[in-house]
Amino acid sequence: MDDCVFCKIASKQIPCFSLYEDDDVIAFLDIAPATKKGGHTLVIPKKHYESITEVPDELLAKIMAVVKKITNAILKDADGVNVLQNNGKAAGQFVKHIHFHIVPRYNDDKIGITWECEKYDGGEIEKEHEKLKKLLEECLLKP
Ligand code: AMP
Ligand code: ZN
Fold first, then answer.
1. Is residue 66 part of a domain?
2. Which atom of ligand 1 has the smallest separation from the CA of 14?
3. What distance in angstroms lies between residue 101's CA and the mean position of ligand 1's atoms?
4. Is 114 a member of any domain?
5. What is the pTM of this model?
6. Containing domain of residue 20, as a range?
7. d(C-alpha 95, C-alpha 87), whole Å
8. Residue 143's pLDDT band (boundaries 50, 70, 90)?
9. Structurally, how many domains does the chain consist of?
């Protein structure tokens, strides 16, 4: 896509701090890391897809294999790692080219990737379970 910053990185029109590259996937440092200690890495397919639902399964498996490699490397230095992937504006996706965030975590860091835990009211978890099973069935029927 012409106006996509990650397509431009994939096609070398704009530079990045690349950590890994093959025919399908590239991993590079996020320019605005979640932690002062750096290391926050993005892993993307070179081809443009907006959301995880659009990426072919085989390519997704290749991307995840790279996510795993980078996570292994980061864990040599960090205390933990969050792997995050945002789909849609409501989920905090700003760059509309699918990307996996690999965020190094340290015991003393101030990154807040947590939420207040809610409780299901009586009968609500059963209803939600039925609703999602039905939606999933519909998705599984599609090729
Ligand atoms: P998201 O909110 O999930 O869409 O995250 C997009 C991420 O892309 C942000 O963490 C940005 O800091 C990062 N980003 C945007 N432009 C660049 C760039 N040119 N090089 C590296 N990272 C970038
Ligand atoms: Zn793109």
1. yes
2. 19
3. 9
4. no
5. 0.95
6. 5-107
7. 10
8. low
9. 1
